[in-house]
Write a structure and sequence with these properties.
With 304 residues, this protein is α/β, with parallel strands linked by helices. Helices cover 38% and strands 21% of the residues. Strand 1 (3-8) and strand 2 (11-16) form a beta hairpin. Helix 1 packs across helix 2.
């Protein structure tokens, strides 16, 4: 994959050539589906996987969501793998991760990979077609990110991008770990960005709330992370389907106002003005994708 390197302050983005600016893209409404429980959200996410698998032959390529949002899905996939993978869904999955803290050992309890292993289980990893994490235990993070994009392109691109929604100050939000003010554009496939204190605290809090077994030493190590590798807007917009899940407003109440802002913001028609909106509030990138299913619990919309 041929990419160009862009530096925006301390943020490094790997961009694809020829991508349209955000002003040339249609705008869509996001209509959240309110489900009664985290388990119901997980079943709906599994339904999306099964529908995608039924509609195509060969591999099904997905970006897993870390943290709380997809834990119910991961448990269901783990159960299916332990039951012998009826229907062969797990064996067709080519799994990618969407973000990672750096530097951080893959063995850390605050690593998304360790959390995936805990929830999905050993049998899932024995049966899955492939599992490609973002590695942060390498000397050259930027080069590793380029190799990661090459592997994703070779797999045929994402059939489903499982996304969450993260709160930021001022009722802004992040997707994957594209943070406000990072300079991400519609051409950017992936980035290496300095970590913000709000994202670091959100990461630690959601792992603890999600039941990850973490030690004080691992938390101290996590607090020394300096950067985040993340897929960018071009990867989000290039996915054939987005399935968003937001299930943790009780432990992250700032999501109520930030999610409401994504739903209600009127995106500017002018390209430069719209680009500023998206940079100030990256959660808005979902509004530029035609196939978004947003699964939420009732408490996300209560009192927002």
């Amino acid at each position: 994959m041929k990419t160009t390197r862009r530096a925006v302050g301390e943020n490094i983005w790997l961009a694809q050539a020829g991508a349209p600016g955000p002003g040339g893209l249609p705008v869509y409404e996001v209509r959240p589906e309110v489900l009664e429980s985290e388990e119901a959200v997980g079943r709906a996410m599994l339904d999306e996987l099964e529908a995608t698998a039924a509609a195509k032959s060969g591999d099904v390529v997905i970006a897993l969501l870390g943290g709380r949002g997809a834990q119910a899905l991961h448990r269901l996939l783990g159960e299916r793998a332990r039951a012998g993978d009826p229907g062969g869904l797990v064996a067709r999955l080519r799994v990618f991760t969407q973000d990672a803290l750096a530097p951080l050992r893959m063995e850390s309890g605050f690593s998304f990979v360790r959390d995936f292993e805990r929830l999905l289980g050993e049998e899932f990893f024995r049966r899955v077609k492939s599992f490609t994490p973002m590695r942060t235990d390498v000397a050259d993070l930027e080069a590793e990110l380029g190799r990661y994009l090459e592997k994703l392109e070779a797999a045929g691109g994402l059939d489903i991008f499982f996304l969450g929604h993260g709160p930021e100050p001022g009722a802004a939000s992040h997707l994957a770990y594209i943070r406000p003010g990072a300079g991400a554009t519609a051409a950017d496939l992936a980035g290496l960005i300095p970590i913000s204190s709000s994202i670091l605290e959100h990461h630690i809090a959601k792992f603890k709330a999600g039941g990850s077994a973490v030690s004080a030493a691992e938390e101290a190590e996590c607090r020394h992370a300096t950067h985040i590798l993340t897929l960018g807007p071009a990867a989000i917009l290039g996915a054939r389907r987005i399935v968003q899940s937001v299930v943790d407003a009780a432990t992250a109440p700032a999501k109520r106002a930030s999610f409401r802002r994504v739903l209600e913001t009127e995106l500017e028609a002018d390209g430069a003005a719209r680009a500023r909106q998206l940079d100030e509030n990256p959660g808005l990138w979902v509004r530029l994708h035609p196939r978004v299913r947003s699964l939420v619990l009732p408490d996300l919309l209560a009192g927002a």
